[in-house]
Amino acid sequence: MNYEFDWSSIPGSLPFLWEGMKISLEITAIAVVVGIVWGTLLAMMRLSPVKPLSWFAAGYVNLFRAIPLVMVLLWFFLIVPQVLRGAFNLDPNTDVRLTSAMIGFALFESAYYSEIIRAGIQSVPKGQVAAASALGMSYAQAMRLVVLPQAFRNMVPLLLTQAIVLFQDTSLVYVSALADFFGAAYKVGDRDGRLVELLLFAGAVYFVLCFSLSQVVRRLQKRMATV
Amino acid sequence: MITIDKVSKHYGSFQVLTDCTTQVKKGEVVVVCGPSGSGKSTLIKCVNGLEPFQAGAITVDGISVGDPKTNLSKLRSRVGMVFQHFELFPHMSITDNLSIAQVKVLGRSKDEARDKGLKLLDRVGLKAHADKFPGQLSGGQQQRVAIARALAMDPICMLFDEPTSALDPEMINEVLDVMVELAQEGMTMMCVTHEMGFARKVANRVIFMDQGRIVEDDAKDAFFGAPRSERARQFLAKILQH
Question: How many CA atoms lie within 13 A of B213 on its CB side?
């Protein structure tokens, strides 16, 4: 049995693959931004002395961390489009797959980000809050001006690492038939009967991107450790 | 200025403070000492509400600290506090450390806050370090900045929580000098410290605590001359041995 590799269908389909890559990057960017903002709020709720807030945040985080991402995406693919169409009176033919994928990702990743951010907040010595309070700052001011800036500084490498994981996870949107980078590669391979080549190529691209990014993170970590 | 009336505090079943009663008058310097675990740091943290207490009452300038209706942030902005571990904000320059609360809490303009900060920095002898970050300064220098940061709020009184116990011996005096100067200018001060030289020099009264109780509360000379309780005598004997 001798498999003949034929890479010829790749060069011509690069523009199509690039379109897919743009979707993957778009989903990653939105999920990272929303994940960090919503994750910060969740982390603050979880650490808050107000019990209902802390229970809500704990429930949210535990729920999303106990469900496979693929299932969350599938639910959002099946449910969110109906809700969005109902809420905004959209044309039934409007394509809301990208939006629902983004919402699903953002809500899912927030749970992971909130745990990273919670650890970051807890890494700031308690005396810092005491000092901020003693100067007359409110809890919110102490958080915003004193604790969070230090927490985020400590967390940068972890947040970036999570973004890399997230970027890889975006390939799972294939369940909603979205042509992200992985989906696009699959389609091209399927069309030309060259699935093996296309998937190897896609894998190589993911590897090169993610590996070089994590090298950057490692450098950053080393530089921060020496400051 | 500060009145503490029958204050008690417990963590679960562990009693930290029992029936503590004392007061600090305007312009008075009161030193609080006692063995570790005696509750002196807890007591001073109760004064500006950083630690809650279950029984008794504390008032600062007539305002009740334990009253849930009291705006604690506002009260704290008028009470300066200096901590054992300095607690400067490491992500801000010295200038920003000095001005942030002036701007965000008191609503002063940035220029006004900066000028005030620099003036106080000059006073503690650190004007040259204005643009550095806390991590670039020695412990003694950081503590002097922390004192300047508290003074920048124009406090009506100052609380010191073991301000020199985290310092190397050669840095203790530079911090004490600033505190002595402050006391001589008439600042109302409550200081938790083991520096008996400082107490001898500027304190009006000395409070000795043991196991969460105020065991002695006496004029300085009476305290150092002839402590009434056996515990205080033993404590002084140990601490003044060398």
Answer: 6
